[in-house]
Design goal:
129 residues; mainly alpha; 5 helices; elongated
Amino acid sequence: MSKYKFLAIEKVGVLLSIVCAIHCLSLPIFLFFAPYLASSFAFSSNLEWILVISSFLLAAIILVLDFRKHRQPLPLYFLGIGILIKLVDIFVANHSYAWLFGILLGVLISLAYWVNYKHKKSCTCKISA
């Protein structure tokens, strides 16, 4: 995979985690309009699972590949904490706090990408892309 294609995939991953955080942040704001948006796809559990699963999969692929090259485990720790937060959200299943778990999840995945990007930018190793 070329360096430029990899950077594009990484940008998509960051975008997905930010969209996930915005989606979870906007949910409590738009609850006032819940009767009108009840059938909307934007606030369905299907969209939530699509965002969460695609964010996790893309982040896991990118961060594991970078870990194999650079041996920097901190981004994987952030991703693991994000997965634990989602598991707590699933098992607690208190819908009044779902927005908080969603925001934490989006922030942690974005933080994992940011730490990974900072390390790759400062890395002096000579690894072919």
